[in-house]
Amino acid sequence: xxxxxxxxxxxxxxxxxxxxxxxxxxxxxxxxxxxxxxxxxxxxxxxxxxxxxxxxxxxxxxxxxxxxxxxxxxxxxxxxxxxxxxxxxxxxxxxxxxxxxxxxxxxxxxxxxxxxxxxxxxxxxxxxxxxxxx
Length: 134
Fold this sequence. Notes:
By secondary structure, the chain is α/β, with parallel strands linked by helices. It is built from 5 helices and 5 strands.
């Protein structure tokens, strides 16, 4: 597995499923991104300040603080309101998409996601191509 460069873009993945966190971490780090993992909204809010990710993937169904609440709190933050938050959900419902958009999410990705769909979402919402390593 490639080690991301120290100046590589940071991407946060918030999901209570260790399987989803691990898959996302593998896909993103292989593409050269730095990955910050969080188990739930509270964990994420503690880490976001320290790491200031360029993009956040956020699961919807989580204990304590769900994805909608987490996204809304990130969007209310003066420092992070412009950070794209992409919702992750195993349900592909219109209601979930609408509710995600209402709290400020930039997009919606259905789980299980493929490496291609995850990386395409990163490129689309950060305005960058994949990092290049010589």
